Amino acid sequence: xxxxxxxxxxxxxxxxxxTVLDAWIVSNPKVKRVVTYTTRAPRSTEVNGNDxxxxxxxxxQEFARNGHFLEFKEVHGNWYASPLKDLDEMLSQGLIPxxxxxxxxxxxxxxxxxxxxxIFILPPSxxxxxxxxLGRGTETPEAIATRLENAGKEIxxxxxxxxxxxxxxxxxxxxxxxxxVNERLFDEAxxxx
Length: 193
Fold this sequence. Notes:
Helix content: 40-55%
Low-confidence stretches: none
Number of strands: 9
Distance between the termini: 22 Å
Number of domains: 1
Structural class: alpha/beta
Order of helices and strands: EHEEEHEEHEHEHHEH
Strand content: 15-25%
CATH superfamily: P-loop containing nucleotide triphosphate hydrolases
Number of helices: 7
């Protein structure tokens, strides 16, 4: 069985990462979301164990002490982490685990997993990004302002990613993701660099 390929996927809040990832999972059964851990409260539409593993701060700290996480960071006042065991199991099954994580976590994960394909999703424009965040209707004006401020900082760090994709059309973005990963898998199978 061919080994899988880890994908690290990032982008600013509201850029459509979940929408793109959900569409990619539907189009390719080998693509699997690595469900991250967080101490933040779930949104009304989120399901524990599917969108995130929602845990208390005490539980999170216990997992971190026991080496359960590949990386963990505090973002927007909450803790987030990538589970190491889940990721490695997916890779051993020949799957394409996707770590959808923020830039801070991604930069840490890149150092630990240089074999990963790293992809940053960009918005079509700053105005479109603001519209998407406002359209959620789930956050306070202060939280929206923080997310928009952080978006600029995250976009500036996109230079550390191997690939950047503008998400103006979900289907095109998914096709580009598929092409990037297939090219990497082919290069590794044939020994190309």
